[in-house]
Each structure stands twice: as structure tokens, then as C-alpha cells.
Amino acid sequence: MQLKTLLLSSATLPLAKSETVLGVYIFHRHGDRTPKSLAPTNLTALGADEVFQSGSYYRSKYVASDASSPIVGLSNDIAVPTQLSVISPADSVLQSSALAFLQGIYPPAGDNGVSILANRSEVQAPLGGYQYIPVGVSSTASSNPNSENNEWLQGGSGCGNAMVSSNNYFRSDEYLSTLERTRSFYSGLLPVINGTFSASQANFKNAYTIFDLINVATIHNQTIPSKNLLTDDTLFELKTLADNHEWNLAYNRSDPIRAVAGATLAAQILQQLNATLTSRGKTPVGIQFGAYASFMSFFGLAQLDKLSADFTGVVDYASSIVFELVTNASTSSSSSSSYPSLDDVSVRFLLANGSAAQNAPREFPLFGRSQSPLPWSDFAAEINKFAIGDTTAWCQACGNTTGICASAASSSGGSSSDNDGEGAAATTPSNNISLPVAGVIGALVTLVVILGVEGLVYALAGLKLVKKSTLAATAGASGAVGGAAAAGSKA
């Protein structure tokens, strides 16, 4: 017992080599929720607690006055909105998760939440000094307002070429062979899922939503129809097939546009960390909540799947990845002149699979490197190879030309990338097709399809294209006929 006490005491001593955390970017998945197949999807009490506990962990690591790795200059107990950049899609599950997480980061202020008025009366803020931290709505072109109500990964991405790319998986030999191989497995589960899925839907095409329904049931339902069918081996197979299905929809090494979710996330990470450095720590904390698609896409782009096949699976509820800006140079929170130079800054990547309170984040090297943390310049250069940093780049890569992309195209005067990582270039390693080129290819394919459909419509309707000269010559003969011809020419 005395030896144990000694070890615990020595663990609290400061390290001889001091490392300072300048800032962090945390990307977080929502907590436990109701199944996707029974929309609308809602955060559960368990899910709220999972993300709250995760927030509490990160408070003990970065925020509290006795934090193990305190962020330099960050307020300990009272949230300062300008020090935090928190965003989430306009999705109820993700927004609710963000609010619960933030209450773990900055819990109710208690007596610090009391205001003393001019007449010397005291007013206690509601809920014990509940701290209202703004959660902004993600503003990228690909933001999906209903992330948790989509049946598959690209269903609401809005990126045309990414949707085409993911749909190509459903025509691949790998998918078709798995579909046939697993038919009997899924049909054997019909007694469990036939209240939601028909016999024709019980197959590998719905691998994730079937797994999701059963997974939620095993967590929440005290009774499940034909529960005896759900052996440990069956549950493992369900998860493995779902992981395989979603990984192939989220990432493909030879078709990088499929990972558009990870590419936009990469740019947001780089921009926030860069802003922390250029502002000398004015906004040292970036937090974003998102769906598992972005995790998987980023893992593929960052080559983490080469480290372990575990990175090709769907992360658990309340999982998080963290990017730490760290330095060993002397730093003072009270003097901007002592802020370290970029040459003295590195980036560390960590992953917590599940709530960080129960699964402490683990460090992993990025981009196929063996070194961690990476020097800032190396990190920025590597992530810039695939990051999509603005609406113009996103529209070009996705082949989108309508909506927000129409105005982006008209206002674009060239590349928006710069030399400090602020505008991430939409490029990929040289052995792959670049994302902008993929956008052009996708646009051409779409045009060919549209022309083919139009030709078929003309054939079936008995219409034909008319030259403008012919149309002008016959325009005076019949106003009605001329109008019909003009409409056909415009189409």
C-alpha cells in the first residue's frame, strides 16, 4: 500500500521536460441515439451522459485550474466565448450532443454565476449558473442538416461527384460478391428485424441500418423478438459487415472525391489551428461535432488504415479525435512576445474510441509517418495535399454548379490557397486523380447522361431539333407551331 501511494504521488510531479499545449481541435461524434431506420433520430439520456462525461474528461485535461495538460491562457472556470469556436450541423442529435459536451467542459458556475446589481441585490443565474456557450452551424457547402436521418453516408452530402463515387461501390465486384455471400445471413435475421425491414430489404445493401437497429435494441430493449438468434458471433458479423459497407462508401484510395467529408474536415482543422497560431492564442479551442462518415473519410486520407484495420470501422458513440498544438519552447500567457515561433510548434493526433472518460485518447502518427508529434510545417504540408478549404474548391471538386456553387463560380477569380495553410489546396498525392480533375470528369459524365435522357425524351415524344434559320423562316407561318419549336430548341 505504501509503495502504491508513493507511485501515485510521484505521478503528479512535473516532468523534467516541460511541454505546453497552445491549442486543440476536437472533432466529436454524438452520443447514443435512437436508430436511423426509425426517424426522426433523437439523442438519448445515455447519449447525453456519454458526451457530458467526455467533456468532463477534456476539462480535466485541458481546462481546469489543475488540468494535466492546461492550454496556455485559457479561462479555467468561466467560459469566454471568444476563446472557443464550436460548430455543428443543424442536426438535433449533433447539436444536443455539443451542448451536453460543453457542460462538461464548463459546468455551471455556481457562486461565480451570481451578479450583484447597483442596489446591492444578488441574482443567481438559472440552473446553478449554467453557462451558455454558443454552438454555430457548420457553414461549409457540404453541411448536412440531417446527418443522423440519412440511410447512407453520401445521402445528404450534397456533393454530386462524391455521391456518384459512393454509388459506384454498389456496382463493384467486391460489393456484389458480398451481397450474394451474405443473403442467407440477413434473411435468417428477419424474425428480429421484420417489424422494420421487409424480406427484400434484408440484405447487405442495408448492412449499417440493420446493424444500427439491432445495436440500439441490444442497448435499450429489455425484450427483442427472436433474441436467441443474436449470438455473440452474429452480433460480431453484423458489426464487421456494417464496418465494411460504410468504409467502402466513405473512402476509396483510387477515387479521393469519395472522402469529401474528410477533406472538408481536414481544412477546418488546419484553418482553426492556423488561426490559433496567427492570433497568438486568442481562440485556442476548436470543437466540432459530426457524424461517423467524417471520421472514416479522414482516417483514409490520413493513411491511418495502414496502421491498423481498426481505423476502417465505424467509431463508437461519443468518440473523438484531437489535434494538439504543442511546444517545448518557453511560453507566457501574459506576454504575446514570448509566443513560440512556428518552428517550435508541433501537432499531436489522438483518438478516443468511445467516450474519452472511459477510453482515454491514444496517440497515433499521421500520414504514414513514424514520427509523432509532427512539426507544424510538416503537418500543414501533408494535410494540405487533400484538404478542401473553401466553397469554390468544394464546388469544383464535387462538380456542382447550382445553388451556392452558382454564385461561387461567378465570384471566383482563381485559387484561394495561400502559403500559410489558411486556404487548403484541393489536391491529392500524385498517383491519384486530383479532386478538381475528378470534379471535371464528374461534370462531363453528368452532362452525357443528361443529353442521353433528353434524346430519349425527344424520340418518345416525336420531337426533333430545329435549326435557328429554319425556325426563323417558319416563324410567321404559325405562331403556335413556332412556339413549340422554340421550346424544343431551348431544351
TrEMBL record:
<comment type="similarity">
    <text>Belongs to the histidine acid phosphatase family.</text>
</comment>
<dbReference type="GO" id="GO:0016791">
    <property type="term" value="F:phosphatase activity"/>
</dbReference>
<protein>
    <recommendedName>
        <fullName>Histidine acid phosphatase</fullName>
    </recommendedName>
</protein>
<keyword id="KW-0732">Signal</keyword>
<dbReference type="InterPro" id="IPR029033">
    <property type="entry name" value="His_PPase_superfam"/>
</dbReference>
<dbReference type="Pfam" id="PF00328">
    <property type="entry name" value="His_Phos_2"/>
</dbReference>
<dbReference type="InterPro" id="IPR050645">
    <property type="entry name" value="Histidine_acid_phosphatase"/>
</dbReference>
<keyword id="KW-0472">Membrane</keyword>
<keyword id="KW-0812">Transmembrane</keyword>
<dbReference type="InterPro" id="IPR000560">
    <property type="entry name" value="His_Pase_clade-2"/>
</dbReference>
<feature type="signal peptide">
    <location>
        <begin position="1"/>
        <end position="18"/>
    </location>
</feature>
<keyword id="KW-1133">Transmembrane helix</keyword>
<feature type="transmembrane region" description="Helical">
    <location>
        <begin position="437"/>
        <end position="461"/>
    </location>
</feature>
